[in-house]
RNA sequence: GCCCCCAUCGUCUAGUGGCCUAGGACACCACCCUUUCAAGGUGGCAGCACGGGUUCGAAUCCCGUUGGGGGUGCCA
């Protein structure tokens, strides 16, 4: 039987990073088996069915490079779901129930037992219509066991599984049923999803059997991804949208690499690997069981390494959204390809995410520098800064405007010579110049930057700074 | 409350009964390099939750405790 897996996100406005990992594992399993990766958008809840949210999923998937073989929208299969519900009803596996939530709760309280539905309408022979919902009759005895590649065989006593609703009173089919129907009809062989679905899996299995689905799929419930407080990442309090990381300048291949590592690592334990390597080495049974923390610090470290490993041309190409695109902090005409090309290698080894690039070169592209108050104050503190700037201004008006490593380095030599005479070490001598010219206390190497900036602009900025002293 | 899951450095993990005085990575600290910041180099800190078993031998197997998490909808 050909391997067929599915990734079934519901449109919530963005693609959740945890979902990306789930999609990745599914995709890898499909690719290594030469099977099919099905993208199934579970949009049956109207509140989550906004068109742009649906296309947002496609875009996000494309960005990370997880291509699908089939794409379905659950909402388009409503008739299939309804037909399945009818089959269940015809087979006597369901019954109509018009108990209100409050009644169910009240009875549970009286009973003193666990909350949940008590089977009140089971044998009342009620019909559809009004507030009636269709409930699935669950077994009172026995155990439903989930055979799970990563969890073993968790067993659930059937007595603890309430008669759950499969069709709402408004006629809409519930998620579990739609899920099972789609999985059966789409020939899904492996259900790889987040651990939070484990508790509903017995219901899934019961329905699967009731619908005559044949051999159930192989399950793999992946450990959840948690925040620093060890809670499942939530869209309300945690930065979970893949788009956020994309706009911050994380590389898609790094996102995949890092996410893969939460829950799985290659046999040899190395941490950096490509998608192709993962396809070659991944095994579902090697997936870990414990929840994993989404550590942005580590993601950043991986990203910085990956950026540095890029050929410069590619680095430059990948920077375009922040240089000439919508994420650039300046108008398109401010960008100068030549200027950036001169700085690119120096910038490349200093950023961890691409969104940090503009701040590294803005002083070269913008006509006015905004000088950071604190940085300037710190750099300008020593008494000797005023005479230093005076003498540098004088010297640099004459000196050859170049910086040649290992040979003559006129800019550098003159600055440090002046600094020496005034009792300022190299660190303190370059600081006021850097702050005056670039606006910040950190940035790419100073003399290289000045060469690109040019004599006139450099001297202008130094004069302006001298005047502020 | 009830059901289910989980438990190795701060974090992600390697480890599947002797190879473990527990390895790597990120973070952190120190030093080196150095025109800032990075990068790089060297070194360091730091862990098998606890208690019982099983065994010649347990991070590895079993039971319990504790701690954490998930689920418990006419959401997906």
UniProtKB/TrEMBL annotation:
Domain of life: Bacteria
EC number in record: 6.1.1.17
Swiss-Prot/TrEMBL GO biological process terms: glutamyl-tRNA aminoacylation
Free-text remark on how the cofactor is bound: Binds 1 zinc ion per subunit.
Catalytic reaction equation(s): tRNA(Glu) + L-glutamate + ATP = L-glutamyl-tRNA(Glu) + AMP + diphosphate
UniProt keyword annotation of Chaperone present: no
Positions occupied by motif 'HIGH' region: 9-19
Signal peptide, first to last residue: none
Coiled coil: none
Cofactor: Zn(2+)
Main location: cytoplasm
Keywords: Aminoacyl-tRNA synthetase, ATP-binding, Cytoplasm, Ligase, Metal-binding, Nucleotide-binding, Protein biosynthesis, Zinc
Limits of the Glutamyl/glutaminyl-tRNA synthetase class Ib catalytic domain: 3-300
Subcellular location: Cytoplasm
Domain Aminoacyl-tRNA synthetase class I anticodon-binding positions: 314-465
Residue interval(s) of motif 'KMSKS' region: 232-236
UniProt binding sites for ATP: 235
Subunit structure: Monomer.
PANTHER family: GLUTAMATE--TRNA LIGASE (PTHR43311), GLUTAMATE--TRNA LIGASE, MITOCHONDRIAL-RELATED (PTHR43311:SF2)
Task performed by this protein: Catalyzes the attachment of glutamate to tRNA(Glu) in a two-step reaction: glutamate is first activated by ATP to form Glu-AMP and then transferred to the acceptor end of tRNA(Glu).
The protein, known as: Glutamate--tRNA ligase
UniProt organism field: uncultured Acidimicrobiales bacterium
